[in-house]
Amino acid sequence: MNDSKNTGGALVTASLWLVLLAGAATNSVGQFAGLDFTLRMVAGGVSVVCIVLLVIRHLARRKA
């Protein structure tokens, strides 16, 4: 099996999870903290992108 494809894979996955959690927390707590609506929507969009990337990585790993 060629491991060069998975180099840094765990780091990328962990980073995506951390960004997802930070974006979701910003989106959730933002209303109570008085953050601007635009900033909360950007944080929500970042969370959605992280979810999509995590699903794509999972499906790619399953096929390999």
Which key phrases capture this entry?
81% helix; mainly alpha; 64 residues; 2 helices
Give the overall shape: elongated
Largest sheet: none
Distance between the termini: 10 Å
**Quick check: average pLDDT?**
89
The fraction of residues assigned to DSSP E strands is under 5%
**Poorly predicted regions:** none
Question: What are the SSEs and their pairings?
Answer:
Elements lengths: L8 H25 L3 H27 L1
Helix pairs in contact: 1-2
Structure description:
The protein is mostly helical and 64 residues long. Helix content is 81%, strand content 0%. The chain has helices at 9-33, 37-63. Helix 1 runs antiparallel to helix 2 (37-63). The protein is elongated. The N and C termini lie close together (10 Å).
Quick structural summary:
With 64 residues, the protein is an all-alpha fold. The protein is built from two helices and no strands.
